[in-house]
Write a structure and sequence with these properties.
The complex is a heterotetramer, with two copies of chain A (about 375 residues) and two copies of chain C (about 375 residues). With about 375 residues, chain A is α+β, with helices and mostly antiparallel strands. Helix content of chain A is about 45%, strand content about 15%. Chain A has three domains: about 5-80, no CATH class; about 115-225, Butyryl-CoA Dehydrogenase, subunit A, domain 2 (Beta Barrel), CATH 2.40.110; about 245-380, Butyryl-CoA Dehydrogenase, subunit A, domain 3. With about 375 residues, chain C is of the alpha+beta class. Chain C has three domains: about 5-120, Butyryl-Coa Dehydrogenase, subunit A, domain 1, CATH 1.10.540.10; about 125-225, Butyryl-CoA Dehydrogenase, subunit A, domain 2 (Beta Barrel); about 230-375, Butyryl-CoA Dehydrogenase, subunit A, domain 3 (Up-down Bundle), CATH 1.20.140. Classes of the chains: A alpha+beta (about 375), C alpha+beta (about 375). Chains C and D meet through helix 8 of C and helix 8 of D.
Amino acid sequence: MDIEFSEEDLAFQQEVRSFIEENLPKGMDLWTKRGDWFKALREKGGWDVPKWPPEFGGPGFTPTQRYIFDMEMARHSTPPQLPFGVTMLAPILMAYGSKEQQDRFLPGIRDGSVNWCQGYSEPGAGSDLANLKTKAELTEDGKHYIVNGQKIWTTLAHIAHWIFCLTRTSSAGAKQEGITFLLFPMDSPGVEVRPIITLGGSHTVNEVYLTDVKVPVENRVGEEGKGWTYAKGLLAHERTGLAGIQNSVLALEKAKENAASIKVGDGTLLDVPAFRNKLGALEAELLALEFTELRTLASVAAGGSPGPESSILKLKGTEIQQRIQELNLEAAGVYAAVWGNKAAGPKFAKGAMSAYLGGRATTIYGGASEVQKDVISKNVLGLG
Amino acid sequence: MDIEFSEEDLAFQQEVRSFIEENLPKGMDLWTKRGDWFKALREKGGWDVPKWPPEFGGPGFTPTQRYIFDMEMARHSTPPQLPFGVTMLAPILMAYGSKEQQDRFLPGIRDGSVNWCQGYSEPGAGSDLANLKTKAELTEDGKHYIVNGQKIWTTLAHIAHWIFCLTRTSSAGAKQEGITFLLFPMDSPGVEVRPIITLGGSHTVNEVYLTDVKVPVENRVGEEGKGWTYAKGLLAHERTGLAGIQNSVLALEKAKENAASIKVGDGTLLDVPAFRNKLGALEAELLALEFTELRTLASVAAGGSPGPESSILKLKGTEIQQRIQELNLEAAGVYAAVWGNKAAGPKFAKGAMSAYLGGRATTIYGGASEVQKDVISKNVLGLG
Amino acid sequence: MDLSYTEEQQMLRDSVQKFIEDNYDISERNKLTATDEGFSRDNWKQFAELGWLAMPFAEEDGGLGGSPVDTMILMEEFGKGLVVEPFFPTVVLAGSALSQFGSADQKAEVLAGIIDGSIIATFAYAEEGAHHNLDHVATTATKDGDFYTLSGTKSVVLNAASADRMLVSARTSGDVSDEAGITVFLVDAGADGISRDDYPTVDGLRASEVTLKDVKVPASAIVGKEGSGHDVLEAVSNRAILALAAESVGAMEKLYTDTIAYTKQRVQFDHPLSEFQVLKHRMTEMFMEHSLAKSLTMKATMLETQGSDETQRTIHALKYLIGKSSRFVGQNAVQLHGGMGMTEELRIAHYFKRLAIIDSQFGNTDHHLTRFVA
Amino acid sequence: MDLSYTEEQQMLRDSVQKFIEDNYDISERNKLTATDEGFSRDNWKQFAELGWLAMPFAEEDGGLGGSPVDTMILMEEFGKGLVVEPFFPTVVLAGSALSQFGSADQKAEVLAGIIDGSIIATFAYAEEGAHHNLDHVATTATKDGDFYTLSGTKSVVLNAASADRMLVSARTSGDVSDEAGITVFLVDAGADGISRDDYPTVDGLRASEVTLKDVKVPASAIVGKEGSGHDVLEAVSNRAILALAAESVGAMEKLYTDTIAYTKQRVQFDHPLSEFQVLKHRMTEMFMEHSLAKSLTMKATMLETQGSDETQRTIHALKYLIGKSSRFVGQNAVQLHGGMGMTEELRIAHYFKRLAIIDSQFGNTDHHLTRFVA
């Protein structure tokens, strides 16, 4: 048992750091030259798709390397990719898609030329996703599905070119059966996107109405009726991604800086015991959670399963994100109220409220915390 | 709306204070002259049984008077009575007992010459009390019940003279039906008491084995099969009593004194922000809970029901008791460990651990907190 | 001791409830918050006609001689209705200061205008670098004969764009966070040298950064005595906290009852959410938090009315407790509404945001807990 | 980075598990705690034979050259088994001090005796008025030629009645809570001038108040250097916390798994308790608390092994976190066992008490949280 990185791993860490140092655009260039960054990552040997296996152009990182890679990327606040294509759809296509589908869709996913959105949740199917009602019926000639129904909470549907969508092709059997995984363009006739304005007035999620949308059968991924199985694997992916532990480590450091910039009495907010102790309690848990992620990783690296500890990552990770957001909100003081395009008070204040409001979603989307606990108690603890 | 006591109430408060001043035995006399105290209370006009109605010799306090009375008694740490007879059985006898039963049992309850214990819980009937199995069968001549079964968690059964006991006389219908309320002496043939040693080695609760115990029918309270209805009313009584809010107010003051006696650095434990803020958070909640009790009381005084707020008193009251116990335990430091007859370190240290251990029972007995929440969500919030 | 409302108080409550039923639902409110001023002048006229703007003021000042209990009743109902009219800055902040510390002239002119609805007023107390310390006042007031010249910047001044008058805390002597040497001035909102940067607040209300540059006011503009502004700020802050607590209690009641209603009709896994034990218990805890918060609000309000020695401590405890329960109730209401709790369509999100802002005003939970245990 | 146990470490764990399976169940433990010494000398002999008492010490000192990771493995299993033998005071407290700071003579004599099982030792560090501050030392050591005279009272000295040797912190200079001026002495437990007041502790172990009255020891009894006792205390405290954390992790594992097992068979309201969603989620939270506590214990132990700069901070975080999770897991295990959790019959109550005591030793949650954020 040894917490130190091997010499190879340390060398790899150095390589990642040097790469970032040399290639990450600085200052405002980060916004205008994002393309250069992703190009450099790609040319480095598939670093633009760190989780993809080598046969699909990924770098073939070991689990430890991936941990180091993620950590360094988080530490240097490199620009993130939209996750829907690269992280969520691509693994499904690799595992269950046809060779044709892989050749057709993976390049656009990888180079970011095609934006995807995820058509899962429906008004009656939130936490209980398998309850979905959107119908896909095969035409008589067997060449198309005709899709009717409504999706909701569809993130970035208004800028997506394509959607991957769960549809019901049969209502016989258990509700997990008879679900089919379809892909279609968002500009197909019969697709209508209506914005949902969420807490704080932002437009990220949408309702998507589907009326007689015609989808060629070759756009079905895998077998008809097996969509639930494919999606479940993908949900697990999504949950790991949502834990965002390395980002929380950074965010906590930033929260400390924010608090240290707020004068209170002769010192700063960071010296106020009530605040400081909350921060400490949070940091102790985050240290523990960070190491729990390492244990999960080590378990996988040793050729095993991620272990029961992995199940707590999303649950605790999102809770910690929210608590960091609360601390920033508190540090913002009266300036928490300022909205619209205006900023007043300390620089971080305005972002603090947006983050706090938007952050409430992290314990709801991607499997609400209550559902996660149901799942852990059943699958990990064997409670009926 | 007015928080001040009326002049009459203030005069009554003064009367109670003067009475205590004049009659409460001081110092060690409190232990040897308890009898005098209760006698004086009785002679004052039924103050020994403050909750009893005037027709049974109680003082006929208004709700505000009873609040003032309870508060002053708590503030002066007057010796408590065992609750089983005076508080728990007596109201049942008054409401459902025959004139003969009232004449026979109430005097012994009142003067403390007869100790009672409560035969409710069974190994299979804890939180789910209605599930009880102890059987009472009528003899052929209809003159006696023959009781067989086992009770558990019977507080002070080993010093009780009599027991009031829930027994099953029929298993037809819902399990709440067919339960009969019986009284019998603990020295009846077939009654066997076995001690249960609880957390910290104390002997307060017992198992009571009942084998062919013969109980005359005239010892049945009310109708056969109606025992559950009678007991439920009594349980509500028990729950209110368990909140102990006035005692917590005192206990919190004592906890502050304890902490102030522990030197830390240049100050005391009371100056350590982590401790002090916990104490403050607790005190704020206790202030709110104390006033919630007053609201309940005001509601009753105004001729109404206790109101939905009353349901939270036991739940929050016991939680607060436990948190005060934790603070004392923390203040005891390393001396929390000292056990047996020895005492070391600050005076309060030894009592602190016993109280903490014993205190775990308060959220279990008399309706576990989880069951209380089930009840509130159903009865108060109307949740299915 | 009598914890029930008087007949007059019941009538007051009924009248607010009726007003809200008739005039406020969430779409109506959304329309109001989208207007320039962020509230309705017509509603404001009705407030005056119904006597609400006169409620807490002494009869000799033209008021109805009500007590903080009446303000509590109003604010609790305003909290339920998510009312956006500037009752809080005008009546609670400026009104409390003037009625308790104002000169006869100030009362005759400004308090009378507040009461009849013709004057909207506010209090400019916050400054950058103060973080909840009302005594941190960098704005200066320099004496020059019978006049004072005010300079400095005030933050998050509620409804400043609509206000006719503005109370301003400024420093006439002492160091930046001394208790002594603060003076409160009554300033014309349109006076020369005042400029504003207006913005909406996240809860749909309005506020401004207000800059004073050599604003000249006569000595008669002083509210109370020169240098004793601390007392004014403390008194106003206490009334403000009581009012915000009552508003929070109203908002929390709606949050937990709306959540109960929603979970009863929302079906997941073939059962209404209201049948899941974890959610039932969560809602029970929300109910309990609301009950306790309401109890302490009542207690503190009655202590203030009575002028008890315990008032100040209890108000610290109250603001702490309100912040804690609001956070619990608000966050869980959103959580139990799932995605729907995140939308601007339901009231839930609006109560949630309002409660978050209330915690940030007049000292947050940590600030008051620290003072409560001091 | 490699978080798996080596083959040797797996064998160590298996050997402790087997020992506990063969020798320890709750009734066996209850018999041991009822004896005079409160533990079994036979078991102790086996500990020596199995090499456990030699595990963490350097090979040149006669040990097995293990690391804190090995101690972690032993203590975690001891925690599961509720082991009562004085491994903690002898090997972890006295052993760490001697192996890190002891002279060659001290090692040759005492460490060797600890390793072969012939010497039981302990550390007398606590004093009244210290409240978790190890540097608060009122016990005096006055130099007189080549000798020192020790006087003072030490509290809650673990297994003092069974100990052959005792390490004692005493003040050779400075004020009562100065960091400098503390010296640690190795004292014969039966030396003239030592008197004891023995008692059981609430977790079934043994301790004493130990009074030293003019106890004369040679200069060679100093462990480390005169006046540098603070370093010894700090080093011992860190090892102590790591060991107690591992023991807690073991105890918590049993608490949550026992609770799962109990709720599966306990039927109330016609269902096993394990089917109630609130209890399922509670047990999930217990499991999570255990997982996190275990993670941080592993991390801190490896940092200590590696001698990292982060060690001290991580150990403060650890003791805080262990205290917090132990309380949650312990209290809920009792709560979910209902009345049965209150009885001495089941293991639950014993784990619960042990965890409560662990929080009180070497600084409680507040103490370490305060230091962690300092």
